[in-house]
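Hi Prof. W.,

I finally got the Pyridoxal phosphate homeostasis protein prediction working! I wasn't sure whether to trim anything, so I left the full sequence exactly as given:
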Amino acid sequence: MTQAEQLAGIQQRIATACGKANRPLDSVTLLAVSKTFPLDRILEFRACGQTAFGENYLQESLDKITQLADHPDAPAIEWHFIGPIQSNKTKPIADNFQWVHSVDRLKIAQRLSDQRPPHLPPLKLLIQINTSGEASKSGVNPDEAVALCLAVSQLPNLKLHGLMTIPSNTDDMAQLKAEFLLCKSIFDALNAQGLQLDTLSMGMSSDLELAIECGSTCVRVGSALFGARA
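And this is what came out:
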């Protein structure tokens, strides 16, 4: 299957899910998760019209961004950092990415704000919510999410756009739905307080239809586009 056919297949899944949920097609965007795959593979999908790519591993992603800058006639790519963030990694993230999906502490947000270069537009930010309650998962506790979001929304050089969650690794659709709806309820509560959030990053290759049913506006798809990772 060609890259164009793979991309079209995912776009059709999104379109079908939007139709079933009675939502407009343009209410959901696709983030292609390109971690562990080389820049050449990313450029193949970019040539098919996919512009937004998500990366989990900082050094790997910085290598790709550098390669892209050296690439003749390099196409524009919107880079999203979606992995866990350590304090000593905030500066290169603030320097090189347009979006960050995985902020779960005020300290990290403050560092990103302080280190965002003044010539760049505000860094677009999502707060990661730990909806599964698993200690091994990153993300702010749902009970603490509203306070964190309100604090982050006041920081300069950042623009808080919404929330992200990674649900339990389970085939139990009822459990997944409960976790997606928990994140959606926090999103709605924040908008009720006037934050005007527009992005809810939920759903991956295996569960994007359920996530769209629950209100996702951004699905993060890796293996269904790029294939299985080593």
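Residues 173-192 form the longest helix (20 residues). Does that look reasonable to you?

Thanks,
D.
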